[in-house]
Amino acid sequence: MKKLVLLGGGYGNMRILLRLLPNLPEDREIILVDRTPFHSLKTEFYALAAGTVPDAEVRVAFPEHERLKMVTGEIVNVNLAEKRVELGNGARIEYDDLVIGLGCDDNYHDVPGAAEHTHSIQTIGKSRDTYRHLLNLGEGAAVGIVGAGLSGIELASELRESRPDLKIKLFDRGPRVLRDFPERLSNYVQSWFDEHDVEVVSNSNITNVGPNTLYNHENSIEVDAVVWTAGIRPVEAVRNLELESDRGGRIVLTPHHNVPENENVYVVGDCAALPHAPSAYLAEEQGEQIVKVLKMRWNGETLPEKMPEIKLQGFVGSLGKKKGFAFLADRTVTGRIARLLKSGILWMYKWHNG
């Protein structure tokens, strides 16, 4: 029995599972390795950290199959030379084909104190810890959120609705939130923050983080908690692979999503160097193509010179439970319709994934 090992139960590998399992060849089995026994909805971790959704709302069960084996554990090393995965508990898993979808860590950009003194929403476990810390803050406490990308915006707005008694400061490196998108979108988000008393600190540059202090340029700002949402990088096990990577540390791949000169090792999701910013949708579309490549290689078929271009549809974000914003097909959508659209997308995802 030949083994396809999937590292990480994120959006990309979840799509691979759902596409392969119904017609899995008789000579193949799949081993899925993840730190949790369920699929986590990372796009909703901001709400978990803010305390507006329960833990059960951001979990989906993995599919079941007689030739799908689940292994729960922390991956500490991937030995490509010996085709072996090593876990923190000492277990070793051999593979014939491997898909690495281990996701990312926070990128602290070498800012002193950032790793030690900030909270995270990169994993479900870290999001739970962040929620517990924010929950215990007293009335009038100040929370700094470093990074005004989609995650930072959604966390700031959700936390405002959850804890109207807190002082919230959102630090943005750019001159305006969502600076790479139409100004109408930026203005709408900024107006929501103005209306709901969330302070956006534009043109910021966090140079140091203390136990209760943020240093923006030369200014010190007293805070009671800091959540870091200012960039990502591949997890340590991927960084240690010593494979060719781009400036962000993501692994460079062939047009068929495998590591150059190693057609048995694929990378999906946040760890893959693709011409788009990492997202759940991108990981799913990449997973679709990896399934096609796997099936063709298993059947001895000739692969096309390159795979179809992955075209992103845009993004949808929330501003609390009632408002939202979206950029779809070069069109800006704001308000209640955008929020309903995001809720609908989440509902459809859960329905399609059981």
Explain the layout of strands and helices.
Blueprint: E1 2-7, H1 11-20, E2 28-34, E3 39-40, H2 45-50, E4 59-60, E5 68-72, E6 75-79, E7 84-87, E8 92-94, E9 97-100, E10 104-106, H3 114-117, H4 124-135, E11 142-146, H5 150-162, E12 167-171, H6 183-195, E13 198-201, E14 206-209, E15 213-216, E16 219-222, E17 225-228, E18 232-234, H7 236-239, E19 258-259, E20 262-267, H8 280-298, E21 314-319, E22 323-328, E23 331-335, H9 336-352
Parallel strand pairs: 1-2, 1-9, 2-5, 9-20, 11-12, 11-17, 12-13
Antiparallel strand pairs: 3-4, 6-7, 7-8, 10-18, 14-15, 15-16, 19-20, 21-22, 22-23
Helix pairs in contact: 1-8
GO biological process, one term: aerobic electron transport chain
Protein name: NADH dehydrogenase
Family: Belongs to the NADH dehydrogenase family.
Describe what this molecule looks like in 3D.
The protein folds into two domains: 2-35 and 73-105 and 232-298, FAD/NAD(P)-binding domain; 109-230, FAD/NAD(P)-binding domain. The protein is 28% helix and 28% strand. The chain is built from nine helices and 23 strands. The chain has helices spanning 11-20, 45-50, 114-117, 124-135, 150-162, 183-195, 236-239, 280-298, 336-352, and strands spanning 2-7, 28-34, 39-40, 59-60, 68-72, 75-79, 84-87, 92-94, 97-100, 104-106, 142-146, 167-171, 198-201, 206-209, 213-216, 219-222, 225-228, 232-234, 258-259, 262-267, 314-319, 323-328, 331-335. A six-stranded mixed beta sheet has the order 5-2-1-9-20-19, with no helix packed on it. Strands 13-12-11-17 form a four-stranded parallel beta sheet. The longest helix is centred in the C-terminal third of the chain and has 19 residues, at 280-298. The relative contact order is 0.15. The mean pLDDT is 96.
